[in-house]
Amino acid sequence: MNNKIEIDWNKVWRMIKNGENVNDILKKHKDSRVMSFHGSRSLDHQAVKKYIKEAIDEYKPQFVITHGEPAGACRLVRDYCREKAISLKLCWLDRERYGRGAFHCRSIEVLAYSDIAVFLWDGTSKGTTNEYKYAKVMKKKRKLYEIEPYIDTLDADILDSMEDIVEDDWVKIKDE
Q1: What's the Cα-to-Cα distance from 121 to each of 43, 73, 99, 124, rounded to whole Å?
Q2: pLDDT in 10s for each residue of the chain, 176 residues
């Protein structure tokens, strides 16, 4: 018996754009604290975990939701949640159902369930940019970390010891 709830994410997006309340469809509780993470695939270095930890420590979510497949920032979020035993929900692409719109629908699904959306952005990723725009339309609380992807070559331990010197040069934080 399959108890999976089938939700048409294109329909949910149209409802949101029309200002309709979708919480009933999602069976979402008002008192839950759900944080979603969205990020660039190029941000695949351990130093990014510092910003994941900062966001989670600040908002103390009941659970975290992110994308199931991508490498980069989303993989680091998944790894961090597993390491710290934080409840995690993954949303997967449904190419069979949505075809070319699968990425859009997955982004809407992740954002629809969240109360606050955290963006780990490399400054160029179009996918993360689009998700940020969706969150704005959906009137989600947003936190944007703009992180340079060049840190791949640096060791995270060295970076931590250089934190005061380097931090202002490679990350800009916007709270909305």
Answers
A1: 8, 9, 26, 7
A2: 344 456 778 888 888 888 877 766 665 555 568 999 999 998 988 888 999 999 999 999 988 999 988 899 999 999 999 999 999 999 999 999 889 999 999 999 999 989 999 999 998 999 999 999 999 998 899 999 998 876 544 444 444 444 444 444 445 555 55
Q: pTM score, two decimals?
A: 0.74
Using CA atoms, how far apart are residues 112 and 121, in angstroms rounded to an integer?
A: 20
Q: Give a yes or no: residue 56 inside a domain.
A: yes
Domain contains 129 = yes
Asked whether residue 159 is domain-assigned, the answer is yes
Look at the block and give the residue holding tokens 């900062």. 54
The answer to whether residue 152 sits within a structural domain is yes
Distance CA(29)–CA(51), nearest Å, equals 27
Q: How many CB atoms lie within 10 A of CB 133?
A: 11
Count of the separate structural domains present in the chain: 1
Residue 57, domain extent: 28-175
Residue 61: give its domain's CATH number: 3.40.50
Distance CA 13, CA 55 (A): 26
Measuring CA to CA, which residue among 102, 131, 119, 117 is closest to residue 61? 117
